[in-house]
Amino acid sequence: MGLKTRQWRPWSADEVKLLYELHQNQPLQSIADILGRSLETVSQKALGLGLRKCKFYPPWSIQEETLLKELYYPTNTVKDVAKRIGRSVSAVRQKARLLGLSDGHAWSKKELNLLRKLYPSKTAQEIANQIGRTVGVVRLKVFRLGLKKRKQRL
After folding, report:
1. Measuring CA to CA, which residue among 30, 83, 77 is closest to residue 53?
2. What is the pLDDT of residues 42-69, one digit of tens each?
3. 101-124, pLDDT tens digit by residue?
4. Which of 29, 32, 92, 131 could disulfide-pair with 42, CB 3.0 to 4.6 Å?
5. How many Cα atoms are found within 13 Å in the side-chain-facing hemisphere of 97?
6. Rounded CA separation 92/67 (Å)
7. What is the spatial distance between Cα 31 and Cα 111, in angstroms, rounded to a whole number?
8. Is there a contact between 147 and 115 (Cβ–Cβ < 8 Å)?
9. Sign, Cα dihedral of 126, 127, 128, 131
């Protein structure tokens, strides 16, 4: 009548060792199948051991770095550059800082113009999504520029 539950059993040293060995290169479900344990149990044990799945990001190619140097500020937004290169916005910002292209805080002319154009009618979240910056950074720049929302006319 009820659901069938497995009896709890402690992890053996061999199971823990195997979990460490397989964790980075095997999906958790495969590890669970190999160990004869549930996915949830393996996931919880891995978490308890501090094991995390690391995403692999390929190194930047010379062509990507060259394109980044050509496209990065002052005319393009970071989001535009990321799209053209095929990398995330945060990856582009980080690489730009490593290459000395940015201090991480500079706004391009295009971003500033877009912010000024959009702010009267859009929310900070909508602007952040379009520009490729965080909402907090957009709000801070709005404050520093002294931008105001348009008042609704009745």
Report:
1. 30
2. 888 988 888 877 666 788 999 999 998 8
3. 765 567 888 889 999 999 999 999
4. 32
5. 9
6. 11
7. 47
8. yes
9. positive
